[in-house]
Design goal:
The protein has 10 helices and 11 strands. With 283 residues, it is α/β, with parallel strands linked by helices. It has a domain of 138 residues: Rossmann fold. The strands form 3 sheets. Strands 5-6-7-3-8-9 form a 6-stranded mixed beta sheet, sandwiched between helices. A 3-stranded antiparallel beta sheet has the order 2-1-4, with no helix packed on it. Helix 3 packs across helix 4. The chain starts with a strand and ends with a helix.
Length: 283
């Protein structure tokens, strides 16, 4: 079943084109990684699906309808700074916000407690849910954020940089959890990331956004030298390490100087992390 269908779409913000001529589908139960340099419009894509940003051209159907705010069939996990802003809250209280939003308050609502408890159990966070967010590790906070996003068992789950600022072990735990959520609920998952390597074992398709363009398809059809060289307008080389990780060479300038009108917020391009991994594997 097709969960999302984008056709010949363009997005403009402040009179500037973010990306254009984009077409792709997302199928139920699939995991799609959204990649590209800072400011290319990856988070903008999620805002479009959430009904927060309008299309300038083309069409978008989410479950056969135009996207709209408050769609409980769509779950959303914001970048980590969203949870940090509420660090005095307990994990359980933060997850509860996914249930009742501005009407926050536990009261004696058994239905709410049951729904929140189920989300905590699914994400393996029950044991530390009653601790303040500020006392949790980065990986634990990300697991709580995933519980928040899955309160209503969404059929489409949008994750904005769920692996940011985590060490490799914590990244692997979150990747396993994303896969578990997909397998348990059957939800389609769209993950914005800067590094494909941690997600590679579970990803079905890739969307790569750069220079106002969007290329989508199976991983090997998009993350190859021909497509990326064409997308960026200059030669790009891909080196596969002995462990099967992809090191992408030739994107340093793009990632060092992102488009000024973008709305993604992150601290490093994938070339930095790929180079670090390659150095470690070849010592």
């Amino acid at each position: 079943m097709t969960v999302l269908a984008l056709r010949d779409a363009a997005v403009t913000l402040g009179g500037r084109t973010i990306w254009q001529r984009a077409s792709f589908d997302v199928e139920a139960g699939s995991i799609t990684a959204v990649l590209g340099p800072n400011g290319s419009g990856k988070s903008t894509l999620l805002n479009l699906i959430l009904g927060l940003v309008p299309l300038a051209e083309g069409s978008l159907q989410v479950f056969g309808e135009h996207p709209h705010r408050g769609n409980r069939r769509v779950g959303y996990m914001a970048q980590a700074r969203g949870a940090d802003a509420m660090s005095a809250m307990t994990g359980r209280d933060y997850v509860s916000l996914g249930y009742d939003g501005p009407r926050f308050g536990w009261g004696r609502d058994r239905a709410k407690r049951a729904v929140v408890g189920r989300a905590l159990a699914l994400t393996g966070t029950t044991s530390f849910a009653d601790r303040p967010l500020r006392s949790l590790s980065g990986g634990q906070r990300q697991r709580i954020a995933l519980a928040h996003a899955t309160v209503f068992k969404p059929e489409l789950l949008l994750l904005d940089e769920p692996l940011a600022s985590l060490d490799l072990a914590a990244q692997a735990e979150i990747v396993d959890l994303i896969n578990l959520i997909r397998d348990t609920t059957g939800a389609a998952v769209i993950v914005v990331a800067h590094d494909l390597n941690p997600l590679a074992p579970i990803v079905d398709r890739v969307l790569w956004i750069a220079r106002h363009q969007v290329r989508g398809g199976p991983v090997d059809d998009v993350v190859n030298e021909e497509v990326l060289s064409d997308l960026y307008g200059h030669p790009v080389e891909i080196i596969v390490t002995p462990r099967g990780r992809r090191v992408i060479v030739g994107l340093e300038e793009e990632f060092a100087h992102p488009h000024p009108h973008g709305h993604d917020h992150s601290h490093e391009g994938p070339h930095e992390h790929f180079a670090e991994i390659y150095d470690e594997e070849t010592r």
